[in-house]
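Q: Here's a chain of 380 amino acids. Please give me its 3D structure as tokens.
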Amino acid sequence: MVFWFVAALLTFGASVAVLLPLTGSSRRDSAGNQHDLAVYRDQLAELDRDAARGLIQPADAEQARAEIARRIIRADSSEEMPAEKAGWSAAGRVLGGVAVLVVPLMSWGLYAALGSPDIPSQPLEARLTQNPADSSVDELIARAEGHLAANPQDGRGWDVLAPIYLRLGRFDQAVTAYKNAIRLEGASAAREAGLGEALTNAGGGIVSSGAQQAFERALVLEPAQPKARFFLAVALLQDGKSAEAIKAWETMGAELPEGSPWREPVAQALAEAQSRIAATEAKEPAAGPTQAEMDAAASMSSGDRKAMIETMVAGLDQKLRENPQDTDGWMRLVRSYVVLGKTQEARSALGRGLEALGAATENGRKLTEFSAGLGIPVSE
């Protein structure tokens, strides 16, 4: 009831403020004209007195008298407004008055039909104390964050909030929440796998060493943990071990129960990895020292082993100059130079590979990520 009274009072005041100028304009104009005529007549009388006393030359007096007369004529003509103009002015005032009255009435009618003036205000603090079932996701998160700010040792609260942050894409906050939950509630397979996923997403999709360690800890606690198994296979693929990644996904897919939400992601990852290998083989990838060949060379003397590896690396380098579109070949070349301790050559190979593949292409980003994992970032 108070709302309607205040609204009516404000509407009345605004309407009166607009209506008053409309009703008084003609009176002000008439009074103004009468005042002007009186001033002009006084000026004529004063001019006649000055001329009679000889204070002004007759020619100047005549010129001034003519100018004052013109002003009197204009004032008289404006006072006698034509009937049609006066009628139009009156019609305009009536139309303005109607508009001033109709607009508030229409607004009140619409608000009464569509508005909700009886609903009380709901500040954030009040909303956070209402029934959780009636709260939005943002309000629930704000409530949880407020609780944890006051109770930072509530491990259960961090455990609940961490996966919510992860689903909302707030990956850095998810990392913090998972770490706090593990610290306060203890490690579990789900928490470690969640931490690994948050670290991976926070790193732009790269399974870093920290994320890999979290996934491995999850598998120690639960060997069949699907999230950890999936992302460890992703790490193999990012390291250039495509065959091992495919084998890991195939094994995982065969062991997943029916209806598992991980069946589709595993099938998609397998298809993409197999398609990538097929495309690489179709381009006749450059030969080079594989990890197995480099491991076999470990039984040789240091001089022979180094000579053999350098020969294979030189052959790989030459073939990449002839076929520079071999992404896996560039990754093997960078890795080989790193194993040989030739950091400058590894950086040079990375630069040549990015120039051939295109740094902004998918293959260029793949080579960049792979080299960064070996400690060879892109040069400034």
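Q: Can you summarize the key feature?
A: DSSP finds 17 helices and no strands in the chain.
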